[in-house]
Amino acid sequence: MYNFDKSIDRRNSNSYKWDGTDDSNMIPMWVADMDFQTAPAIIDTLRKRVEHGVFGYTRVPDEYYGAIVSWFQRRHGWTIDKSSILYTTGVVPAVSVAIKAMTNPGAGVILHTPAYNCFFSSIRNNGCKLVESRLKNDNGRFTMDYDNLEELCRDDNNKVMLLCNPHNPTGRLWNRDELQRMADICHRNNVAIISDEIHCELTYGGNKYIPFGTVDSTAVVLCSPSKAFNIAGLQIANIICSDEPLRNRIDRAININEVCDVNPFGVLALMAAYNDSEDWLDALCQYIWENYKALCGFFAENLPQIKITPLEATYLVWADCSSLGIKSSELEKRFEQDGKVKLSGGTLYGDAGEGFMRINIACPRERMMEGLRRMAKVLKMKSEE
User: Fold this and answer.
1) Which residues contact 222 (CB under 8 A, 6 or more apart)?
2) Which of 226, 255, 276 is the last residue in one of the domains?
3) Strands, E, within the chain: which ranges?
């Protein structure tokens, strides 16, 4: 029904991913957006709005909140009161305003590394201190270091734990027991929780997304349809906060940071995504899962020295290249210059990412396979040096 094999030419569309290089032969498999057209219902909705031809300031209607409440209730069993929802222009701005509202300058924010690179700047830009808790690599599967988390939470200066659920870049999907253990540690030590759940719809292999809000109602949860429905450029996201005084502080921070005005396309796209595009999302997840299986088969046959982290969620594959003995930054450069395939080096996500590469597989399968073949060619050239 949906043709995810269709190749869409994104060059000369002002795409950050595709137009960031003048090399027309480059295959970009780095920044986290997809090369698929979004769901037909979203395209139809936006087309009708464009045909109206007037694009003034946007009022967010009640139907917007209803779409969010209905989606999370029926798909994830999470009951959200619409009064708990604050809209903003993206999840990164949402992270920043949540930190602003929940800390004072100089406070510590606990972050599980390797971590999404924008988290580092969000913490820094609020005058806070990054407090790193490295994930443990247990035979290729990343887990939480609870003893370290407990130790860090005991420090009175550390006020917030910032979680990525599902986790970018490792592809982990935290289960209910793991989330509960994090919540218990934070509550014992009066540490607040912010959970970025932007990748929550992209889950595979029978793994189930657990909203942190169903484990701990005091957690501040950030969500958006932008990753799952490939509408990041429409700039829409939501902050779910059940605590009214805290929600008022976050709302104030949204206004201070001037990220309170959303555009008409983002509002309509969210409603079309949550109300009319569930079957498209299911088909997308199946296609990405098949991409992942094809990637694993390719690496097993052609690049067995690179170990692939199990992908439970997201469309971002975390590849352990440490056996090659090449720094991530150098490997990234070699793939780009010699192989014409652009990936994200692991140290973009902190020092804990050294030795890894992040590969975006949300593209037509043949394009992905060509990117992998180029990687293999580069490493073959290296072995022959």
Assistant:
1) 91, 94, 95, 98, 194, 195, 196, 197, 198, 237, 238, 239, 240
2) 276
3) 27-28, 85-88, 108-113, 129-134, 136-138, 141-143, 158-164, 192-196, 220-223, 237-240, 307-308, 316-320, 341-342, 344-345, 356-360
pLDDT beneath 50: ranges in the chain: none
DSSP string, 346-375: GGGG-GGGTTEEEEE--S-HHHHHHHHHHH
pLDDT at 1: 85
| 129 and 244 belong to one structural domain | yes
Flag whether 11 is in a domain: no
Measured CA to CA, the distance from residue 251 to residue 271 in angstroms comes to 22
Q: What is the pLDDT of residue 359?
A: 99
Same domain (yes/no): 197, 75: yes
Residue 16 lies in a domain: no
Predicted local distance difference test score (pLDDT) of residue 220: 98
What is the domain range of residue 345?
27-38+278-383
Query: 0.90 exceeded by the pTM?
Result: yes
Residues 222 and 118 placed together within one structural domain of the fold: yes
User: Structural domain tally of the chain?
Assistant: 2
Q: What was the pLDDT predicted at 385?
A: 62
* In a shared domain, residues 84 and 179: yes
The CA distances from residue 293 to 235, 310, 346, in Å, are 31, 10, 22
Instruction: Provide the CATH number for the domain around residue 99.
Output: 3.40.640.10
**Of how many residues is the chain composed?**
385
